[in-house]
Amino acid sequence: MQMETVNQPAEGDVHCTSVRAADSWRDAAVASGSIRAQGALLSTEFDVFDQGEVREHPAGIVGEEVVAILEGEFDIDAAGEHYRLVAGEAILIPPREPRRFSCVGARGVLYRAGTSLDASASTSGSPSGQSA
């Protein structure tokens, strides 16, 4: 599956972005890849992994994000912590922290939704988003 980006249409009064990924990630024959939509402050992404596939993001690259496992089993290393999550579970990762996703099963699908670094800059001081 090739990396796709779905952007807001330039026509009329359309203000929302629709990400039509269902056929892509539900089809077991689809190879690994991503479908992504980027807004002004948030991004959303469906990531399909092959068995044993690993994807990493170093510190300082990604904002705060929620990662939900839609299919399969993953080892997730983030912010110096390790988790093994399965379909139906999710994790909230703080902004600017390194993260590594390893597909443990035969195939895996992640849904990721996160802020841009500019959007998360004001909330990185504490878990509640308040500055000290």
From TrEMBL:
Q: So which domain of life are we looking at?
A: Bacteria
Give one Pfam family.
Cupin_2
Q: Name all Cupin type-2 domain ranges.
A: 63-105
- Which InterPro entries would you find in this protein's record? Cupin_2, RmlC-like_jellyroll, RmlC_Cupin_sf
Q: What is this protein called?
A: Cupin type-2 domain-containing protein
To which species is this protein native? Paraburkholderia domus
